[in-house]
Write the structure tokens for this entry.
Amino acid sequence: MSDYRAASISVLKGLEGVRKRPAMYIGSTDVRGLHHLVWEVVDNAVDEHLAGQASVITVRVLDDGGVEVTDDGRGIPVDLHPTEKVPAVELALTALHAGGKFDQQAYAVSGGLHGVGVSVVNALSSRTEVEVVRDGYRHTIAFERGPRVEALAKAGKKRGSGTTVRFWPDPDIFETTDFRFDTIAERLRETALLNPGLEIVLADRRDGRSETFRYTRGLAEFVERLLAGKDPLTAPITIVDARDHESRKVALDVAFTWSDGFHDDRLRSYVNIVRTADGGTHEEGFRRALTTTLNKFGRDSGALLKKDPNLTGDDVREGLVAVVSVKLPDPQFEGQTKGRLGSTVARAYVEQVVSEALAAWLVKHKAKGRQIVKRAAVAAKARQAAKAARDLTRRKGLLDNQSAGLPGKLADCTSRDPSETELYVVEGDSAGGSSKQARDRHTQAILPLRGKVLNVEKAQLSKVLENAEIQALVKAVGTGVGEAYDHDRLRYDKIVLMADADVDGGHITTLLLTFFYRLCPRLIEKGHLYLAQPPLYQLRKGDKVAYAMSDKERDVLLRSEFKRNTNVEVQRFKGLGEMDAEQLWATTMDPGRRTLLRVNIEDAARADELFVLLMGNQTDPRRDWIVSNAHFAENVDV
Ligand code: 0RA
């Protein structure tokens, strides 16, 4: 047997192995695995771009189930491999792991996470065609389910250079062979964002759709897209570096900013253009750099006071929007899905470069820097409050629903059918009195909260939990809080917060919403928390009575309903306590006439932010204004 035949037999055994265990090579044979074939072929073309040789990549979804990827690179070599005695292009399509460029200095996508090589695509396709333009000719070769079926041949003269790979996924292997335009588009956009200047065209021959991705401003543009229209604290801070680090050729590209639009971080990282969904050493280096540099700047600039604790990684990451892209030869991946970078060289390298660059940026942008630090300090306070609250509930179990009977202050309803009952949580004793008279005793329960809870100024959430009034509230609601929360024990269908429409009312509402948001968010998510809407004015002329929720509504009524009337009596309710039972029933409690606002989780999240503002030590007059003018629930629900 000739060398050639021996070699080709062993090669084809390899591809048979791929067909026997496709998931080992591409993860799965579902729609994800199917698209993995496209990523594999595109990554090869991107490698050619990274080598500085290709500037346009075109991906066509064909109308007969195939996909075609073309690049304008050098073209896969067509000359005979010196020892294997087959054209290099044939070897690339048939030998496992033979797609690389054999250059240890180069960063190669195909040597990275996916790295299975285009031969795997061939093995899993019913047909694969490759066209190479180079040396003045167009060369063609074709394969079916692995083996070559058409030998490499010249198909006419052609100038320029490039590679086209066309493949039709094997329906015997894949559960579906239906490519999704949006899935491919999203991935190609990401690739284009990570490779400034590279043009990627996607064309769908099935319906004529097409899109071109080309970005020139680098990762800053990527961060702008991740912001999704939310306002950033700064224009993206960008860092670009390339050097020899510990005798390895490494490169780093970073862009980041912060936004109030996000609570956690939006950090994306890549190694050699491959996404590292589970982070790794490069992300660790980046985070360490942010934390240490911002702490140092915070101390030096006075943005962090002596008594303030150091910012933690979590604090600094709140609202962070960042893209970290490193390139290094031969990266090591870890974890179940190989989505985490393990190479230790990346940690020190990224930390060093980002620390230096961020420190230099802070010198030039002191005011912005202080804002960034202050923002993180607020996040730190919120985190401490939430942690203290969690610790407290765990330690004492005192907020557990089983721990005692119902609170004495609760005027419960008679119905035991939770689907028809409501709990009115009422601020103040006098309002508690009138609402008890006003209510429908069968379905409506009243829990008055005394003034003491109103002192939310400077109160930590943990202190709030020690408050007897709040404990009464938890017992009345019935579910328990935090880890002890049990939704099935909810005693009322609606929990209605009823507070005055003034600053104090704003404070108590903020406090209660924050309390529910942090300790029983499920109750909000399932739509059981409401805000009552007591009126601000009563308008009366003889028998004719109307109520207005706002100054604007009052003026409208005066111009319409009471238009021809003189001497209209306008009463302003300073608080719920000023309304008699009848008025309270007519305006705020009668299910047939009242307006209730259902609180959604975003409303509650905003209250949580305001609560942090309230907790702060600063005496900012704007703060009271914000709190009393905060409209927590917009959607009207009767
Ligand atoms: C090996 C060596 C060279 C280029 C390539 C592979 C190559 C592979 C792919 C895959 C898709 N497009 C591609 N373009 C090029 C370098 C050949 C030379 O030095 O001319």
